[in-house]
Write a structure and sequence with these properties.
Helix content is 38%, strand content 22%. It is α+β, with helices and mostly antiparallel strands.
Length: 286
């Protein structure tokens, strides 16, 4: 089975009640939005790009999210069948197009983030996966998840709706087999969408009741304002996995990493601390 997680033992009474009050993920969404100063991040990526042309802003986004999940492991949790679990690994999912046009087919992919991965490793891994997807010769066998979903999607509607209902029930009770879930974006630690390519800000995006993903992040367009580069970030989370204070601390850590991009060259799981003066500064602003 593809649940790939272990049951969490330190569950509070309040969390158990939340599971009963809001048994579905889409009923427990909390949305966070922030305008982040990414000036130093942009400069750093541009310098890296001079040495390695494959490096992109998106690769930096993925690495930062990976570091955040390793630092705040409760973000890697999910609720299934009113029970709290935690993923056994860290993975970030996204959707890639087979070709650069509006009619091109889209493919799901789920990227494991290793403890020792730096932005260089992540860049290589993402490029390898996207190249495979865009190789027309391998499209038919890109991954099991896309093939299964596509086949189910073409079934006669009355049968399809019943089949999807059965799959959702099996998923909730036992977890779906790897042939369906291994590359499915809804079984990742978090799903990420780079909306900057469409020149739009970060947006609210709903979670799904299928799978094990408790978060979805959207990175908006990077714009220059008064000599600074700013980016809008939107994150939707399942409030049942942890409290709001934990989420806010994670968001502040994201802002800190964008302001200190040298962390991109460090392993994803390497610990880092946010200086007390920055935390106090944020408190004063409030």
């Amino acid at each position: 089975m593809a649940r790939k997680g272990h049951k969490v033992k330190d569950v509070t009474g309040m969390q158990n009640i939340m599971f009963d009050l809001k048994p579905n993920r889409c009923e427990a969404e909390v949305y966070m939005n922030a305008d982040i100063d990414v000036t130093e991040f942009v400069k750093y990526i541009k310098e890296l790009k001079k040495k390695n042309e494959d490096i992109t802003f998106f690769h930096g986004f993925v690495h930062i999210l990976g570091k955040i999940i390793y630092k705040y492991p409760k973000l890697n949790r999910f609720v299934q069948n009113r029970t709290l679990y935690e993923h056994d690994d860290v993975s970030i999912a996204f959707v890639a197009k087979a070709e650069f046009n509006d009619t091109s087919e889209e493919f799901m992919t789920c990227l494991p983030i290793g403890k020792d991965d730096t932005i260089i490793d992540i860049s290589k891994n993402i490029k390898a996966r996207v190249d495979k997807i865009r190789d027309k010769k391998s499209n038919a066998n890109t991954d099991g998840a896309n093939n299964v979903v596509d086949k189910i999607g073409h079934i006669w509607r009355p049968i399809r709706s019943s089949l999807v209902g059965i799959l959702k029930w099996v998923d909730c009770k036992f977890g779906l087999p790897g042939s369906i879930a291994d590359e499915n974006i809804y079984y990742s630690s978090i799903i990420v969408s780079n909306l900057g390519t469409f020149r739009t800000p970060g947006i609210y995006h709903n979670l799904a009741n299928l799978g094990t993903s408790s978060g979805l992040a959207t990175f908006g367009e990077i714009t220059e304002v008064d000599g600074k580069y700013m980016m809008n970030l939107g994150i939707t989370l399942d409030e049942r996995i942890e409290d709001g204070f934990y989420f806010c601390r994670a968001l502040k850590a994201i802002e800190y990493l964008f302001a200190n991009p040298e962390f991109l060259m460090e392993p994803a799981a390497k610990p880092f601390e946010i200086p007390d003066n920055i935390i106090k500064k944020n408190k004063k602003k409030k």
